[in-house]
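Standup notes
- DV: blocked on the single-chain target, sequence here:
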Amino acid sequence: MDEEVWAAVNRTAEAGGWEAVATDRLSPLEVDPDGPLVRTLLGIYQAETGDRDAAPRSVGYTTYAKSLPNTVAFGPLMPNAPDPSHEPDESVGVEDLAFQARCYARAIRALAEEEAGPLTPAGPPEA
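- DV (later): unblocked, structure below
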């Protein structure tokens, strides 16, 4: 947590006779947007959507990706779509779920290979 914010939390707690205790603090997730991990994942998204102008996005909430080295949060919020995260009746449509599954499968395969190689638009599943 930013030290300035933590100091404000402590001041407010002390003013009310309370003590603020940090039990778990994760550092911000900072990843090179031009690094191979982000380039590979972005390439998969671009290949699946055809959106060649897409760029990495950051969100204002936390992720378990912060607890592991060399990781990023990947998916599933689409541009211009409402964000139902942590809302009552949180859900995802069947078509969106299928899209996400394709992206995750391609990501697992690409990241498991020694070299990701060129990505091409998705076609019908291989038999």
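- Follow-up: The radius of gyration is 19 Å.
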